[in-house]
Amino acid sequence: MPHARLSIKPLTTLLAACLLVTAPIAPRAQDQAPAAKASKKASQPAAKKAVKKAAKAQAPKAAPRRQRAVDALRQSRAKLKDLVPFQAEIVETIVVRGKKFRATGKYMQGAGNKLRLEFELEVGRTKGSLVQVCDGTTLFTQQKIGLIVQATRRNVPKILKEMKQLASKSGPRPRPDQFEADLGLGGLDALLGSLEQTMSFTVRREQTFQKRPFIIIEGTWNATFLETLTDDDAQDSSDELPEYVPDRVRIYIDKATQFPHRIVYLKRAANRGVLRPMVSLEFRSVQLNAPLADASFAFKPDPGVRVQDITDEFIRQIRQAQAGGTAAGAAPAAGAGSGRGSGSRPPARPPSR
User: Fold this and answer.
1) What CATH number is attached to the domain comprising 320?
2) Which of 29, 54, 147, 331 is most buried by a 10 A CB count?
3) What is the mean pLDDT of the chain?
4) Which helix (H) or strand (E) covers residue 208, if one does?
């Protein structure tokens, strides 16, 4: 996915222009005016000045600019920085080909790339779990499917350094925290950031649930994202996306705290009528600014499980992707020990979580 090109020059130019326009110019005009005009102005009746003052006070105020859907998303992202550290129970529901999967767990996010994610999933008689922990320096991932358990670790500073070096040689300028998000770090903020980059949000409304007001925004994939679809993923003649790619996303943001309590990926039904939930991510029992000890971000593998260091392998995959023309800084596709991505693109096969 190409990185967004950002520049502050237009913004600073606009601010400078505003300062020039709003600067007091009256003293200059008075300095150039003849003394007679100044004397005449001083002798104006006090009543006339009062009338002008009253008229100005009664003038209608300009209506506030209507907030766009993407504005609500950006405000939520900005507010998250003030809510860290936080923790919550997390529920993920996936519906694929009429089958429903439900995963439950816990999520914690701290400052400096610290996070902890625990998931448990049951499909039929098979149970699985995912634990991902980062203490800010090392990213640990343990996946369990039935009796098979795999645990890996990655050196975060080493990988980030490699990603930034590759990006500096070629490709557009990455957006802030792009590399952390591609590595699977950044948590909820990285997820919202990737949605902002890959989707166009056009719908915004407000609704109350259990006496709590929420801002609800909706968006669809933008042209930049659609260009990243491979030939196998390409849309058919009916312009329908593949069955494993959602058509729309809906985000529920608490109006008071700005915390995004629910993110739902929606898929259009075969008759192109009703949108149905495909992947739903819900945060419950949220505790904002919760005091989390460093021990919360410590990883302990299951007894007898060997933790494999895949840092060099991960870097090798990044280099191969770069050499193959992949956008600079993109994380390798899901593979051995690749872990969870940033969420900018839904997983090709959701049940493989």
Assistant:
1) 2.50.20.10
2) 331
3) 76
4) strand 199-209
